[in-house]
Design brief:
With about 325 residues, the protein is an alpha/beta fold. Helices cover about 55% and strands about 15% of the residues. It contains twelve helices and eight strands. The strands form two sheets. Strands 1-2-3-4-5-6 form a six-stranded mixed beta sheet, with helices on one face. It has a two-stranded antiparallel sheet with strand order 7-8. The longest helix is centred in the C-terminal third of the chain and has 27 residues.
């Protein structure tokens, strides 16, 4: 994975891939007027040879295989599980030698070595940080949203009378005349926390926990909350627009629009990461989306436009976040 990302990153910084014949050795060159800057990655086996100095023979073979007109400057980067055993290879000053500790995902540059080579230090460390396994986080955002929904349900159905409950739904549900004529824009958000009954609440919250915990663990708390609430708001806008066009006076409540936004975001992450994120496959997700949408088509009192709007909004928002992150990682750094 590290070498795949290096292969993607270096061309963005002016390097070209060299065709080398030795197995486990990958070379890149940046051709400039005064010299050719070469970076050679040597992916060492798990078990190092007894005589580590024999590794230097690979360097000589690489140099013999490459021919440049003019001056050629070399940086050799060893990738190994045992950096201490090959530290002796970094003692000379003729060529630059760095080590990547494979297990620790850490770049080692010793004192006698050049530490500023065509911005390679920043590039390598950026890729190492990107591919470093992240500790699974507690889904505080998901749990918090579920907690608020449950609390509001308890207040509505345990502490309020039927008349008070109906009045609360009428004053907080998504109803387009109240939003457009009375400017009660808060309804777009408050309607996401109101549910019509225990089955409605349980179905939404179980789904939110199952899907939301995956997405929040992948993108973090802040981005998850952004995806959830923006998707929910956009889902409400789509639902209202549909009702306005069809002149339908429908009051809509529930978190399903925002939840479908999280489903759409997860779909985006899966499809753009070769079909797998944290044990959820693309076919399984497609089957889930199909069942969720199709069940709504045949059931009454289901705001399918909010589902569609949330699903599309979540997918597009996730795509934007991924493109922004990719752009940030690919942007060359300057000193």
């Amino acid at each position: 994975m590290f070498l795949e990302r290096i292969n993607e990153q270096l061309p963005l910084h002016g390097f070209e891939r060299m065709n080398l014949t030795q197995q486990g050795i990958f070379g890149f060159v940046k051709q400039e007027e005064e010299q050719n800057s070469c970076v050679i990655f040597i992916n060492l086996p798990d078990e190092l040879p007894k005589n580590v100095w024999s590794i230097r023979y690979s360097e000589q073979q690489v140099k013999a295989e490459i021919y440049f007109e003019g001056v050629a400057k070399f940086l050799f980067v060893y990738i190994t599980d045992e950096p201490d055993k090959i530290r002796c290879l970094c003692e000379d000053n003729f060529d630059a030698h760095w080590i990547i500790a494979r297990n620790e995902r850490k770049l080692l540059i010793y004192e006698n070595q050049l530490d500023n080579y065509c911005n390679m230090k920043d590039i390598i460390e950026g890729v190492l940080v990107e591919n470093k396994p992240q500790k699974k986080i507690t889904a505080f955002g998901t749990i918090g949203i579920i907690g608020i929904n449950v609390l509001i349900y308890v207040i509505m159905y345990w502490l309020c009378t039927a008349e008070q409950r109906n009045e609360l739904i009428d004053n907080t549900g998504l109803f387009w005349p109240a939003v457009t004529y009375n400017h009660e824009y808060f309804r777009i958000v408050t309607s996401m926390f109101i549910h019509s009954g225990i089955n409605h609440l349980i179905n939404n919250m179980v789904l939110l926990y199952c899907i939301g915990s995956y997405v929040e663990d992948s993108v973090g708390h802040v981005k998850f909350m952004l995806l959830y609430f923006v998707s929910g708001i956009l889902a409400g806008v789509v639902s209202m627009s549909y009702n306005i066009i069809n002149n339908q006076l429908i009051l809509s409540i529930g978190a399903s629009g925002a939840i479908f936004g999280i489903v759409g975001a997860l779909a985006c992450f899966i499809f753009l990461s070769k079909g797998m994120i944290k044990d959820i496959t693309a076919p399984r997700l497609i089957f889930f989306i199909f069942l969720s949408i199709s069940s709504g088509l045949y059931e009454q009192d289901v705001d399918n436009m909010a589902h569609f709007g949330g699903l599309l909004s979540g997918f597009l928002l996730a795509l934007i976040l991924m493109l922004l992150q990719k752009r940030r990682l690919k942007k060359p750094k300057t000193r």
